[in-house]
Structure formats: C-alpha cells, structure tokens
Amino acid sequence: MPTKVPRRSMEDSDPIANAIAPPENESPEEREFRIQKERAAKQVSDAIDAELSREQASEKKRPKPVKILLLGQSESGKSTTLKNFQLLYEPKAFRAERASWRAIIQLNVVRSIHIIISAMNHAQNSQDRPPSARSSISSHESLRLDAELVNLKTRLLPLLEVEKDLMKRLSLPGSTEVEPTERPVAGPSSKRRQSKEIAVNSTVAWKGAFTRSNSGSSDTDLVDWDDPQDPGVILHARSEDIKRLWAHPTVQAILEKQSIRLQELAGFFLDSIDDVTSLRYVPTDDHILRARLKTLGVSEHRMRLSDPTGGMSRDFRIFDVGGTRSLRAAWVSYFDDMDAIIFLAPISAFDQVLAEEPTVNRLADSFKLWTTIVSNKLLQQTNMILFLNKVDIMHAKLASGIRLSDFVDSYGRRPNDFDSASRYLRKQFNSMLKQNSPTPRIFYCHLTNAIDTKSTRYVLAGIKDMLMRFHLQESHLIL
Ligand SMILES: Nc1nc2c(ncn2[C@@H]2O[C@H](COP(=O)(O)OP(=O)(O)OP(=O)(O)O)[C@@H](O)[C@H]2O)c(=O)[nH]1
Ligand SMILES: [Mg+2]
C-alpha cells in the first residue's frame, strides 16, 4: 500500500499557500509526476524570462520612436487620418475592429434619420401655427407632409429607440465618457436647432462593447449575429422605409429649404442604405473611414514600421486628439518632443461655422489655429505637415456655385474653380507659417481626401519615409 505523504505545514489561512500546496493524500507516483510537471513549467517560465530580458536589452538599443501629433479643429479628419495609418500599416488589427465600426455606422444612419424627422416636425409645426404667427415665417418652411410621409415618420420612430440602445452600449458601465454633444443643424442662424452627436473618450475601451471576445478569424465571426438586441435587425426591417423617406421629394425640399445638406455631414450613409442595412452587414474599409465618432480624449497608437532602405524598423507613435475648442488646452502637454505635426484644415468648410461656436467661420478658425500652432515656441523645431483636407467636398461645393469670395473677402475676383481656390488657400497657410518661423523648418503641404484610401496611402507612405530618413540623420548626428 503506498505510504501517504504528510501534508506540508502551512498557514491554513494563507490563500496563496493553500492554492499552491500539494494535494492531500498524494501518492509517491503522483508526487513524482507533479514534480516533473513543475520542473517543465519552470523551464518554460525561465525561457520566457530570458526572452523578455533579451527583448528589453534590444529595446534599449532601439532608436527613439518617431512621434506624430494630429491636430486640427473638430471634424477636420484627424481620426480618419489615424484610421488610414492603421489600415496601411496594421490592416489586420484595423479589420478586427469592424464590429465596433458597424455599430457606429448604424448610429450614424439613425442620426441622419433623426435630423430628417426633426426637420419634418419643424416644417409641420410651422404649418400648424395660426396664420398671424406664420406670417413671419418664410413660405418655404410651410411644406405640407402628406399622409404617406406622416406614415413613414411613424414607422421610423422605433429607430430612435435603436439610437438610445446603441448609446447605452457605448456608455460602458459606470462610465460617463460618452457624451452626446449638441451641434447646430445648418440653417438660418435665428432658427438654429440642435441635433445630438455622439462622442467617446478614446482612452476608454469602447470597442470592447461590440467585439466578440472569442471572435474567430473570418469577418462574419466578429459580430454576434444571434444577439436579439442587434440593431441590424430593425434597420434591415425598415430599410425600404428609410430609402423612401430619403428619396421623397418633399423631404428633399424641406431639407433644402432649411439649408440642411445631409450629404456633407460627417457620417453620411443614406446613399448606401442597401449595403448598410443588409442582414449580416460587415463594414468595408471605405465605410469605416466614413464613420463618424467624435474624439474626446487623447489617444496614443503605437506601430512598428519597416525602413524603406532595408535598415532597422522604427517604432511610430501617433497621437490623436479631440479638436473641439474646449479640448484644445490639453494639446500643449504633447508639444514637447514631437517629430512632426500633421495639421488638418478642412478647406471645404469655408461656408460653415463651428458646431461649438456658431458665430465662428470654420475656415477662419483653421487659419487662427494654424497661426497659433506654427508660432508656438515648443514647436519651432518640429516638422510641419499640412493637410488641406476634404478636397472632394471642396470640388463639389465650388462646382455647385458656392463662391469662396462670399466668405473670404480677400479672395476677391479670382476664379471660383478648385485649382485657383486651393492654390490661394495653400499660399495663405504657407505665408502664415513663414511669418511665424524665425528659423527655416521642414514644411510639406498636401491636398487630401482622407476618405479616399488610395490617394491617402501615397501621402502617408511619403511622410513615413521622410520621417524615417530625417530621424536616421538625427540619430547619426547624435552618435
Ligand atoms: N468627404 C470627406 N469626408 C471626410 C474627409 N476626411 C474626413 N472625413 C469625414 O469627416 C468626419 C470627421 O472626421 P474625423 O476624422 O472624425 O474628425 P476629427 O478631426 O477626428 O474630429 P474630432 O474627433 O471631433 O476632433 C468623418 O465622418 C470622416 O469620415 C474627406 O477628406 N472627405
Ligand atoms: Mg477625432
């Protein structure tokens, strides 16, 4: 009969000692087997420790990371530029987040419908007012909703519940990080109305709320299709209604008369409703770039990029910040030690105002912000890269007859075409930089469309190579 091994003396109250103590009544064979297992485990653990020390030692030898800070007003395209970097250099990780972006796109769709319904209500209310009160309202606001439209509106109301539900899921338990912020809907300033825009603090792991923890390797594995709360089901069921609402001539007239240009609003997906509301919809790269989620905090993204000359790879750190005015004070703590600033100025916004400050023209705000950044003492040595962004919207706006000179007096009688306008604006930004740079500094300016992956890919690859070369020269100088 095998002799029993006496239980090792230990403090019964010590949970750790309890957990690692050999089992009671262990036979000699079991003991031998356990000791062998523990020895093997220790060998593995020692090997991991050795590998970690080797990595730490080589980490110390690695050159300093290249740091890039993305700056610009809200909705200038900072987070979209970061998404482009991720898509280009970490496509697997980027695509693994599709389930989270699917939820944001659904939220964007519902928000557009919310804006349309508010505009319809506004038109209806002005119609319902007594004629004496109506006399001060311009005739265009009194467009009548026919029975079909009223019906459509009623059928689409459940989507507002979807919005609430998605927002609840985005607000992680115990967190107040999700902040539905007010933004004015374009329209005559005296009759400005508000529509909510969702924002998330980028330091919060909001993406976890939508990604399956045990997700498989294929795209469709990323979404929990059996989730009864999935907003995709309701959106799919209402897809035809959404299309009819959006295509309805009275709706188009109401939006036009209230100066609401939904196509130009961030997160516009109403022209892709068939795709976005299809059952088992998984966003394409293009859709992820178009998705709008306002940034509140500052987020840091790390990636290791290869050297085009075949040398050692470099660590890049890209910092994305929130661009709303109240968040800009936080930028300065990141100014120290940056290798480059990518400043985004959405030139198409020349006829728009800031959401947070409806008296301030957005192009004027970009000019002022650029001047503040280039004249900052901490940034005198920093490479400046300017993206004159949203050129696609700029093209369309100018072509539709909206005149730059109506908003920028100094543009004078120059032609209202894209080439002349972009050349003029580039010159303005350039001269602001020169006036505020006591010593010459590296400056690049690109006309960009950040939702176009192809053109952005070339711009970003060029920036990466330039910064690697520059960084390499600097390290040689230091050595
Ligand atoms: N059409 C068009 N849309 C763009 C372009 N660049 C960005 N967008 C869209 O504009 C919206 C705003 O872009 P974001 O990248 O979220 O803006 P941001 O600068 O990060 O804004 P904050 O986080 O509020 O500071 C998103 O829906 C983008 O898809 C562009 O060049 N053209
Ligand atoms: Mg952002």
Summarize the structure.
45% of the residues lie in helices and 11% in strands. It is an alpha/beta fold and 479 residues long.
Explain how this protein is built.
With 479 residues, the chain is of the alpha/beta class. It is 45% helix and 11% strand. The protein folds into 2 domains: 63-95 and 298-478, Rossmann fold (3-Layer(aba) Sandwich), CATH 3.40.50.300; 98-290, no CATH class. Helix 3 packs across helix 17 (453-478), helix 5 crosses helix 8 and helix 14 packs parallel to helix 16. It is flat. The protein binds guanosine-5'-triphosphate (GTP) and magnesium ion. Magnesium ion is lined by residues 78-79, 295, 320.
The CATH first-level class of the largest domain comes to: Alpha Beta
Percent range for helical residues?
Answer: 40-55%
Overall 3D shape: flat
**What is the name of the CATH topology of the largest domain?**
Rossmann fold
Structural class, from secondary structure content?
alpha/beta
Tell me what the CATH architecture of the largest domain is. 3-Layer(aba) Sandwich
Query: What is the CATH superfamily classification of the largest domain?
Result: P-loop containing nucleotide triphosphate hydrolases
Q: What is the CA-based Rg, rounded?
A: 28 Å
Low-pLDDT windows of residues? 1-11, 134-141, 174-179, 181-194
Quick one: biggest sheet? Answer: 6 strands, mixed
Q: What pattern of helices and strands is seen along the backbone?
A: HHEHHHHHHEEEHHHHHEEEEHEHHEH
What is the oligomeric state here? single chain
Count of DSSP strands: 10
Spatial ordering of strands, largest sheet: 6-7-1-8-9-10
Report how far the terminal alpha carbons are from each other: 72 Å
* Tally of helical segments: 17
Organism: Mycena maculata
Binding site for Mg(2+): 295
GO biological process, one term: adenylate cyclase-modulating G protein-coupled receptor signaling pathway
InterPro entries: Gprotein_alpha_su, GproteinA_insert, P-loop_NTPase
